[in-house]
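Handout, section B. The chain below has 336 residues.
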Amino acid sequence: MKLHRYWRKTACLWIAFLLLTGCGQTPSSSAQPEESSSGSGPQSSASLSSSQSPIPLAPDPGRFKDWDGSPILTLENYPQMDGSTANLPLMAQVLHKTTGISLEEAETLSSQCSTTPLAWGSLARGDADILLVYEAAESTKAGIDLSQLEITSVGRDALVFINNGENPIDRLTSQQIIDIYSGQTTNWKELGGNDQEIVAYQRDETSGSQSLFVKLVMKDVPLAEAPTELKPIGMGMLIDGLASYRNEGNALGYSVFYYASYMYSQPGLRLMAVDGVFPSDETIADGSYPLLNDFFVVIRANEPEDSPARLLRDWILSPAGRQAIIDAGYIPVSQP
């Protein structure tokens, strides 16, 4: 799969922008006002748990069975799309394919999102029409009535762990990761490495990668408290922080595979094997890498059948949408 050079060149700029402003992405509207990262909005009467599963992948709705590649939307009626930082290239590919504008223009128009926690709340409140998004943290779900949303898996990503290439330890077991982040293991020599403190980065509790980390690895094991400087707000800031330790090689962090590999990779850093399997396009696609999770397309359940948001959702679930996911470099969950 091709690297997204555009995103790697501009990542620093738009990550800095995202830290200053919260914005729902749409080609025809301006940024939304900043809001709390708790994702809070109108409170549902029910608190929703992680045991509630997303709607299974829907069959091809049929309206795009014989799609000839013609635009189905215009910039004027394109629904307001929001989502996760790691899905920005997919947002651009979908905009390109469904409106007929160039991919370069679509990348420019799709260079903003409000990030995972804010995007879920934005859709629930009506500030966005459709999401391409990773799973929300429990604290975010608690403020949203998920029963009012149609949530469908469309792609697969993975939680990955990152350290310095000079560190002799290039793999960890799930239990070793738990021991590190619970504070039981604090020095690389305990794992067969150098006599160096393990500098273990975390993310804010509402971030998408933190939600995956807790869900897939830590589960009910309490995390050791990390100092503020080891809990950066943005994924790019975490990777930059890891890179700043490259001369000593004692830092450890995590992200999602697509972002760390294709959007914001840094020289000197590497992805680590977990339970003996290195993350790659192949091991994620075949399911052999252990820390996998889907990302979703989401609309409100009360969207009319002829609304642009539902039209776009149905296109994303069609064979054409599956191909767009592949063209953007992601791994679809649907079969051809």
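Note. The chain has twelve helices and ten strands. Compare this with the example in section A.
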